[in-house]
Amino acid sequence: MSPLNKKKLSIIRLKLDKLDNSLIRIIKKRTNLVKKVLAIKEKKNQIIDKKRIKMILRNIKNKSLSNGIDPKITNRIWKNMIFAYIDFEKRNFKKK
What we know:
This protein is mainly alpha-helical and 96 residues long. It has a single domain (3-92), classed as Chorismate mutase (Chorismate Mutase Domain, subunit A), CATH 1.20.59.10. Helix content is 80%, strand content 0%. The chain contains three helices and no strands. The chain has helices spanning 3-40, 50-66, 71-92.
């Protein structure tokens, strides 16, 4: 790789790192909201809402297409995020 391309790559990677830091702050906010949702749920079987998951994934696909983003990327990201939070809820569920 040429020195110029190495410099360009370094600049882009710094921008990616900055964006990752922003995503971490957003994930923290999302986690706090999920904790509030979990506090409302009364039974462990309320953790998975298949209808809502389908709706979320459909909306993300539509938003991806309208923003020129490959929907396969966002579908995978959201599915992983949804299942990570389902796991989080199962681990933190407290019977009332």
